[in-house]
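Margin note from the TA: students keep mixing up input and output lines. Inputs are the sequences; the output is the structure of the whole complex. Example:
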Amino acid sequence: MNQPFDALRAVLASPQKVVITMHRDPDADAMGSSLGWALYLEKKGHQVSVISPTDIASNLHWLPTADRVLVFEGTNAKARECREVIQEATLVCCLDFSAISRLKELGRWVNESTATKLLVDHHIEPEPFADIMLWDTGAAATAQLIFETIRYLDGTAILDVPMAECLYAGIMTDTGSFRHGNTTPEVHLAVAELMRTGLEINKVHRMIFDNSPLLRMKLLGHVLSNRLQVLPEYRTSYMTLTAAELEKYKSGTGDTDGIVNYGLQIEDVVMTALFIERKGEVKISFRSFGDFSVRDLASAHFNGGGHRNASGGRTTLSLQETVDQFLKFLPFYKAQLLSVEK
Ligand code: 5GP
Ligand code: MN
């Protein structure tokens, strides 16, 4: 007996009108877990709509059935359609986030829905808004949790290549291509099962990583050459990007994903931040090694959260003011930063 799984099994025993939604600016785990779960539920005879609060990064458009995702912030007509499917839903699934605020304005409609709510997530700060919580901070990815849920409910024989592509995309990206500390034996066992469907893993890597517009590479070159600062006394690096630079390099949603990781590749650096000025706010990405928790940093000072070694936040200050805040807080973390093993 496993309570949340069995509660879910009971709900899915009769055909449901399902809405699956994910966090704003969805990454490959948010999209991959949502689409993989949608494909599974459809195979089981449920009616499924998938909603993203914001538009979707171009390197995720190839994911099987990505073109069916309703973008709430797209047009007024799309927003209305999203509201209607949520109002009609009997089951609302919230994937890869634990705080309703990460849905932006869409959160209001999810809050008001009287449907059964399912949360599937691996972030640290759960809000208790769901009826059924499949929540495990030890899981490498939400896609890993979806894989385990499907295996529990039905076994792995039901998996097919499109489902496997979606779930593999989430697991692969959230483990940094199987190199972060969250890469458990369970991750590799899940991948083994996904590969048994006939999944071509090199296709997924190619579509996500080797598919950049030329300008994205140029932007990366510009940031690394001109906007990367290292603070050896804090074993910290950081980078900045202004709205004008994003405009110049025609950088859209998702095009800046991955840039932050370069900051950690510098010798002796154990924490890095990327500050991006976009849509009237500053979005910050943090990454760290070992025991240093950027999730604590993001939630204490930058209205954010996430995981110990990968977190994000945002401010309504200017880019320079946000960086100044960060620099002001660093001395308080100096001892912790110096004690991290790299
Ligand atoms: P990224 O830097 O790639 O946007 O995000 C890194 C991690 O932090 C992801 O797991 C993401 O879900 C989480 N994260 C990013 N931004 C926020 C935020 O504003 N609030 C919270 N709670 N988590 C965030
Ligand atoms: Mn995510």
